[in-house]
């Protein structure tokens, strides 16, 4: 016996015979079970709060953003009066160009006067106030039309103009007669006028493709703003990220997973990578500003710079997932290749890498999705604060010309402090989320499809 | 112009590379008299070898040259600028950016044919209005060009084009030598594969060390500018001062403490939201939920983590903020009939939304950690008649505590470094206040505001952003290292 | 000397503590326990033996409803302790497990101090009126588990710092501290070295005075050394159940004989 204690010296621990029946819960057990229920309820509550937040968020985005995909248009017959547009009567494009948008504004007033005369609408509004329900871009639209085809001068053409954002808001329920009490841009009389035009079928709300493919607009014309150009900016950034982060990330992972000796240097690299993954994104923006713009003098606001910054940010994600998929390839595959006389490099590139490819691809897509939604570093390299109005015309211009990106465009709209732009920001979020959901779905499908169990 | 020359050089190197590939391949084959089996390596390896020796050294030199040249040119050009201008124009960086802009303008003027190349090198500001000239070609200048600046700009142009010329010569020369040597050695018994593989390994190592270079880049870029900042502004005010009041006419109060207070206050609120909810969600998912609930709820929660922060920012500004105002503000029209909150941006707004964002972060990390607690622990407790909640509270959670602490620290580091939510939801007023319904500002918000818009990299008001960034980096890095260390130790314990 | 005990075993007919009838256990689609009937006596050590995967541990875990914690497990049939059906809806497994303690294959002390490990059960079941009462309970339990002398000076040290044999005795002390009426032991010595095994076996023999002990073991020698009754399981069936001496010296079923003589298992 190793223990000096003998049974006789131990006070007997008699089972409590009076412990009671198992079929009856004693008071303490009831209390404990109540505590158990409460504790479980906390968990249910926590999960429910999480779900509730998700639902509120999604509901919020959809209910506020879908409006951006519809826009109010005013149909109007505009007489393209020759005496206003071409006083010399020679249709010389250079002379026509000299007529500014101010020269076209009177045509719109005339058009409205004709309209009320034809439809018998009674209003006390001046023709100028009537034209005020149109977007400020309407004269420019007329001018572009005339310059594109000067032979139209003298005819009367039917146009569809964007309504001003207030009128658009009125049709979408965002603007009411109460809310415009102090608004200088629109009056209750104008809304009455709009009501009459709606009855006459001249004003209607339609799907607005321009929001998806169009360019951003100035502060005064939220009705014309679109996501298209910033989408192209995001596209070029993703191109840079894909072209750099994927090869570099895969190369780094192959080295660390397959070749690296176990020493302090590799340890440092590994710790470094996991820390880089947790560095705040804004710090990468500072790096981009200091190194790419201030030191290397790469152009400000260029998708190339944005892409470089996002590449550095995405690398850790890609490296971590690539290493996981390389690790999942069993050593027997490597041994088999080495066994037939392949070099280590050949065994990795011919056998391990192809087997790990689906996992690498999944990780890359997820990394790209992360990069696509990232905003903070883009603020510092100047991808906000201007109007991304011109789509790039070549790859070089796509990479080097100033542009915005989807999240930066959303931020820009959010800053403009106008409910009409807020609607566009929510709409932009819908577009951004559609991209993210698509990418993540592809990643999930890839994972399911190619997941291999060894 | 320099860019186009660079482009041509790259193109030439690439053409040379492809040529070397085929030349070496056929050379190797011919030394084996067409019998591929006599070669040490597969024919393509001889090609790769030649391509590698042609492209890699040449492009490497080019890259270093492109990185180093601007710095060297700036150093030599700067000597041409008299002290007088630097003092008036407030700093070296500002003057140098003028010089670059003038040089760039001259380039454009030449390209557009407004002046000839020789004219550009020789015009004097006395003879011609440079500002007007450059204005015509689309380069707007803020002020008239000083003769010294013009001279420096012309020197800058000359040096740049000379540099570019020599770069082209050197790079192409190196490429030629590389191609020639590698083609010559491509004989049957040359171990091409081994060389290529060593080269490939070097590339792999280079890729792996990019992570370190990024970190070094982050630290150095912020360190240099921070040093510049501390030359212009006292470090005691930065670290120990009590107020943040940047003033672009100079003489600003730039202390990090009020910003740090705002940052930490918001982070604490975020953690108060995220940690209990996230932890209980993780406990429920790992200990109570059946496989069905788990497989549905876990990905749904994780969607919250995949939503970009700009979305949360907008949510804070336009939904949560106004909702809070309608509860705590608006006087008699509000829900509580009080007037405690005046605007949508507030510490509470940002904190709540950030908390929502962090819920999945805390829950999925804690879930992993709770799952790592061995089942034997739970069995031991159940076997003694403990209820599930007693087992969780008294056995599982204490065992998982270090890991959970690590997860919370990681979440804290996230919260401190988060930008978009606070930029949109927290406000811009730096102050020490305990009232969560007031707007306050954070380190990240100030970095954004000091570095966007028209920035002057010579004023402390701009440079302070780098010192803030460095502090933020050190702070989050410290938290991350600590958290990862704790989590790693924790995992080892149960492996 | 231990081997002699088989013969001098007192086989007095104690009262029946646990009565199992027609017990079936399914793990998902697998039928793990097939129609087992067994009566376990009070103040007796009953050993369950059989080859790995024969269902002996599964059956043991039915006796304190530990199988409830496994989602896919399903138990049918009738198991009564002191005449009460433990699978009755009114029975709280928590109360049941306080009455039927369990010691596991691998020592699993909680990552707490030695004292807190032993005090855990009494605390959750509210057995101690005050601190000194709790101290007494812990000391008594540690003495019963024959480990008091080894740990009395370091009760605040973590339980995970003990050696394997000490850890297992700590776990036994932990189980004993709740004052159970039945003690289930699932291969308690399989992770221990021979010396520690001897200590634990000695302890089991002493525990018999107060408890009904059920021990699962894959070691026939151990079953022979510590038990008075033995049940032999094979492929989910209870093949034979009887006096330990009887089973080991004169088994009725040829499968039991094959196993004991080492031909199966």
Automatic annotation (TrEMBL), chain A:
Residues 231-443 form the ABC transmembrane type-1 domain. InterPro entries: DUF3333 (IPR024573), MetI-like (IPR000515), Phosphate_PstA (IPR005672). PROSITE patterns: ABC_TM1. CDD domains: TM_PBP2 (cd06261). GO terms for cellular component: plasma membrane. The chain crosses the membrane at residues 41-62, 235-256, 276-296, 302-320, 352-373, 425-446. It is found in: Cell inner membrane; Cell membrane. Keywords: Cell membrane, Membrane, Transmembrane, Transmembrane helix, Transport. It comes from the Bacteria. The keyword Transmembrane applies. It is a multi-pass membrane protein. Its main location: membrane. It holds the Pfam family BPD_transp_1. GO terms for molecular function: phosphate transmembrane transporter activity. GO terms for biological process: phosphate ion transmembrane transport. Belongs to the binding-protein-dependent transport system permease family. CysTW subfamily. This is Phosphate transport system permease protein PstA. It comes from Roseobacter insulae.
Automatic annotation (TrEMBL), chain B:
InterPro entries: MetI-like, Phosphate_PstC, PstC_N. Residues 260-483 form the ABC transmembrane type-1 domain. Keywords: Cell inner membrane, Cell membrane, Membrane, Phosphate transport, Transmembrane, Transmembrane helix, Transport. CDD domains: TM_PBP2. GO terms for biological process: phosphate ion transport. It is found in: Cell inner membrane; Cell membrane; Membrane. It is a multi-pass membrane protein. GO terms for cellular component: plasma membrane. GO terms for molecular function: phosphate transmembrane transporter activity. Its main location: membrane. Pfam families: BPD_transp_1, DUF3708. The chain crosses the membrane at residues 6-24, 45-68, 164-188, 200-224, 264-285, 305-328, 340-362, 395-416, 463-487. Part of the binding-protein-dependent transport system for phosphate; probably responsible for the translocation of the substrate across the membrane. Belongs to the binding-protein-dependent transport system permease family. CysTW subfamily. This is Phosphate transport system permease protein. It comes from Roseobacter insulae. The lineage of its organism: Bacteria, Pseudomonadati, Pseudomonadota, Alphaproteobacteria, Rhodobacterales.
Automatic annotation (TrEMBL), chain C:
GO terms for cellular component: membrane. GO terms for biological process: phosphate ion transmembrane transport. Pfam families: ABC_tran. NCBIfam families: 3a0107s01c2. It comes from the Bacteria. PROSITE patterns: ABC_TRANSPORTER_1, ABC_TRANSPORTER_2. This is Phosphate ABC transporter ATP-binding protein PstB. Keywords: ATP-binding, Nucleotide-binding, Phosphate transport, Transport. Coiled coil: none annotated. One of its GO terms (molecular function) is phosphate transmembrane transporter activity. Residues 18-260 form the ABC transporter domain.
């Amino acid at each position: 016996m190793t223990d000096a204690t003998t049974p006789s010296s131990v006070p007997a621990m008699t089972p409590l015979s009076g412990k009671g029946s198992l079929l009856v819960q004693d008071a303490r057990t009831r209390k404990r079970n109540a505590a158990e229920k409460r504790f479980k309820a906390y968990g249910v509550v926590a999960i429910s709060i999480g779900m509730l937040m998700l639902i509120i968020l999604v509901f919020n985005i959809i209910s506020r953003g879908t409006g951006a995909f519809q826009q109010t248009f005013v149909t109007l017959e505009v007489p393209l009066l020759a005496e206003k547009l071409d006083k010399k009567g020679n249709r010389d494009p250079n002379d026509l160009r000299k007529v500014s948008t101010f020269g076209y504004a009177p045509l719109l007033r005339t058009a409205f006067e004709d309209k009320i005369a034809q439809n018998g609408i009674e209003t006390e509004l001046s023709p100028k106030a009537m034209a005020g329900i149109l977007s400020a871009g309407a004269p420019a639209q007329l001018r572009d039309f005339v310059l594109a085809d000067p032979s139209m001068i003298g005819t009367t053409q039917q146009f569809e103009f964007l309504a001003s954002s207030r009128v658009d808001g009125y049709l979408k329920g965002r603007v009411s007669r109460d809310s415009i009490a102090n608004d200088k841009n629109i009056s209750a009389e104008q809304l009455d006028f709009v009501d009459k035009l709606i009855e006459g079928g001249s004003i209607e709300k339609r799907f607005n493709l321009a929001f998806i493919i169009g360019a951003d607009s100035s502060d005064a014309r939220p009705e014309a703003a679109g996501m298209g150009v910033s989408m192209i900016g995001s596209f070029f950034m993703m191109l840079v990220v894909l072209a750099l982060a994927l090869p570099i990330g895969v190369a780094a992972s192959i080295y660390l997973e397959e070749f690296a000796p176990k020493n302090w240097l590799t340890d440092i690299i590994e710790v470094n990578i996991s820390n880089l993954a947790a560095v705040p994104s804004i710090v990468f923006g500072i790096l981009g500003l200091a190194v790419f713009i201030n030191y290397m003098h790469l152009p400000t606001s260029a998708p190339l710079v944005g892409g470089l910054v996002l590449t550095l940010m995405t690398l850790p994600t890609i490296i971590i997932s690539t290493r996981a998929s390389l690790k999942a390839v069993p050593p027997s595959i490597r041994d088999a290749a080495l066994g037939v006389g392949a070099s280590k490099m050949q065994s990795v590139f011919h056998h391990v890498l192809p087997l790990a490819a689906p996992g690498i691809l999944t990780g890359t897509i997820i990394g790209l999705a992360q990069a696509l939604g990232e905003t903070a570093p883009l603020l510092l390299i100047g991808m906000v604060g201007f109007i991304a109005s011109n789509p790039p015309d070549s790859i070089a211009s796509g990479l080097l010309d100033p542009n915005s990106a989807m999240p930066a465009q959303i931020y820009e709209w959010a800053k403009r402090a106008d409910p009409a732009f807020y609607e566009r920001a929510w709409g932009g979020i819908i577009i951004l989320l559609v991209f993210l959901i698509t990418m993540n779905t592809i990643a999930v499908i890839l994972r399911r499809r190619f997941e291999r169990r060894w | 112009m320099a860019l186009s020359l660079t482009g041509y050089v790259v193109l030439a190197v690439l053409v040379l590379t492809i040529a070397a590939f085929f030349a070496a391949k056929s050379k190797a084959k011919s030394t084996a008299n067409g019998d591929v089996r006599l070669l040490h390596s597969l024919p393509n390896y001889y090609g790769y070898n030649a391509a590698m020796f042609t492209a890699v050294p040449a492009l490497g030199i080019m890259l270093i040259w492109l990185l180093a040249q601007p710095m060297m040119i700036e150093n030599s050009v700067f000597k041409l600028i008299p002290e007088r201008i630097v003092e008036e124009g407030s700093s070296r960086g500002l003057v140098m950016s003028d010089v670059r802009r003038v040089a760039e303008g001259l380039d454009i003027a030449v390209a557009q044919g407004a002046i000839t190349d020789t004219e550009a090198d020789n015009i004097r500001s006395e003879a011609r209005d440079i500002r007007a000239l450059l204005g015509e070609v689309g380069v707007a200048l803020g002020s008239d060009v000083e003769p010294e600046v013009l001279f420096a700009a012309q020197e800058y142009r000359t040096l740049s084009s000379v540099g570019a010329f020599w770069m082209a010569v050197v790079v192409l020369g190196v490429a030629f030598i590389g191609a020639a040597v590698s083609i010559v050695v491509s004989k049957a018994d040359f171990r091409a594969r081994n060389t290529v593989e060593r080269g490939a390994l070097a590339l792999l190592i280079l890729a792996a060390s990019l992570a370190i270079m990024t970190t070094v880049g982050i630290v150095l870029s912020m360190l240099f500018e921070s040093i510049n900042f501390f030359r212009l502004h006292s470090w005691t005010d930065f670290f120990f001062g009590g107020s943040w009041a940047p003033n672009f006419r100079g003489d600003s109060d730039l202390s990090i403490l009020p910003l740090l207070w705002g940052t930490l206050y918001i982070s604490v609120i975020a953690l108060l939201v995220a940690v209990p909810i996230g932890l209980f969600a993780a406990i429920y998912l790992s200990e109570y939920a059946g496989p069905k609930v788990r497989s549905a709820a876990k990905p749904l929660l994780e969607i919250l983590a995949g939503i970009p922060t700009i979305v949360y920012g907008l949510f804070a500004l336009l939904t949560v903020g106004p909702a809070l105002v309608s509860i705590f503000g608006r006087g008699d029209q509000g829900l509580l009939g009080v007037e405690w909150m005046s605007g949508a941006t507030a510490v509470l707004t940002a904190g709540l939304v950030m908390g929502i964002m962090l819920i999945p972060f805390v829950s999925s990390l804690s879930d992993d950690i709770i799952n790592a607690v061995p089942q034997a622990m739970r069995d031991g407790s159940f076997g003694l008649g403990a209820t599930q909640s007693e087992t969780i509270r008294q056995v599982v959670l204490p065992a998982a505590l270090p890991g959970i602490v690590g997860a919370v620290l990681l979440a804290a580091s996230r919260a401190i470094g988060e930008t978009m939510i606070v930029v949109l939801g927290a406000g811009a007023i730096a102050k020490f206040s305990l009232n969560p319904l007031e707007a306050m500002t954070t380190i990240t918000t100030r970095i954004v505001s000091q570095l966007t818009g028209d920035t002057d990299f010579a004023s402390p008001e701009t440079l302070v952003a780098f010192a803030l960034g460095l502090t933020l980096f050190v702070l989050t890095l410290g938290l991350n290292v600590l958290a990862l260390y704790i989590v790693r130790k924790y995992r080892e314990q149960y492996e | 000397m231990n081997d002699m005990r088989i013969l001098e075993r007192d086989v007095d007919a104690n009262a029946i503590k646990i009565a199992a009838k027609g017990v079936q256990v399914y793990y998902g689609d697998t039928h793990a326990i097939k129609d087992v009937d067994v009566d376990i006596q009070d103040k007796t050590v009953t050993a369950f033996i059989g080859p790995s995967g024969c269902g002996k541990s599964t059956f043991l875990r039915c006796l304190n409803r530990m199988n409830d914690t496994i989602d896919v497990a399903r138990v049918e049939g009738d198991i009564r302790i002191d005449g009460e059906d433990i699978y009755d809806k009114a029975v709280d497994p928590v109360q049941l497990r306080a009455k039927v303690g369990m010691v596991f294959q691998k020592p699993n002390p909680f990552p707490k101090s030695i004292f807190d490990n032993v005090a855990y059960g009494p605390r959750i079941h509210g057995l101690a009126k005050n601190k000194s009462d709790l101290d007494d309970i812990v000391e008594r339990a540690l003495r019963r588990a024959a480990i008091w002398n080894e740990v009395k000076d370091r009760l605040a040290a973590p339980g995970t710092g003990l050696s394997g044999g000490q850890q297992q005795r700590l776990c036994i002390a932990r189980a004993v501290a709740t004052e159970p009426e039945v003690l289930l032991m699932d291969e308690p010595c399989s992770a221990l070295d021979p010396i520690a095994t001897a200590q634990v076996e000695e302890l089991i023999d002493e525990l018999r005075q107060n408890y009904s002990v059920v021990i699962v073991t894959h070691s026939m020698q151990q079953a022979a050394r510590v038990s008075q009754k033995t049940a032999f399981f094979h492929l989910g069936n209870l093949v034979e159940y009887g006096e330990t001496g009887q089973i080991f010296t004169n088994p009725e079923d040829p499968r039991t004989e094959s196993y004991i003589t080492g031909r199966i298992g």
